[in-house]
Design brief:
This protein is mainly α. The chain is built from 3 helices and 3 strands, in the order αβββαα.
Length: 126
Amino acid sequence: MIKSISYKQDDIFDGITTMFCPDGFECDPTYSKGIFYKNIPKPKYKYDLSPQTEDTIQADSCNLPLEDNLIKSIMFDPPFCFGIHGKTLQNISAKRFTMYKNFEELENHYKGSLLEFKRILIKKGI
């Protein structure tokens, strides 16, 4: 059974993969440590600005080293924190993930990434 509301990340991913990509997500341009993939297949293509695993390639999600119309599915979980201030470097999220200087920088990254995904995704890609 697939529900439209879930309270567990694993249930959400299971529903998405069951409906749209039963083989799992093909590409993750913000892979980090790959924690999403405990109970689902790891993607074939793994990228991150600061790779944290040996099999992750360093790349910006706005400029991926992939051919046009190659990818069937993408998992995109970008950083979401912004606003540099005096305690930024002590913030647990800022230590692990990118911290944008301001909302404009976040917005530019998201828009640039979406344009890149349009380029690399096949027609009707997920």
